[in-house]
Amino acid sequence: MKLTVIYFAQLKDRSGRSSEEVELTGSTASDLYHSLDGRYHFGLERDHLRVAINEEYADWHSTLKDGDSVSFIPPVAGG
Length: 79
Prior knowledge:
CATH architecture: Roll
Largest sheet: 5 strands, mixed
Shape: globular
Radius of gyration: 12 Å
Helix content: 10-25%
Low-confidence stretches: none
CATH topology: Ubiquitin-like (UB roll)
Number of domains: 1
């Protein structure tokens, strides 16, 4: 299935892009993150991130569908 992935903060820096279209053979947000972490070596455990599917926070075990937009949101510091 084809998905749009949107990156923020450290994930954007590590991937070198703010978004991309990817093909996924797995089925969950967790599968997608594992695949992308293997490619980009994000250096963040999944437990330290939030995931959003189609602009709504979701569970890591949520099933993805073709055409979904997935955002991985790392912790950010403000000041």
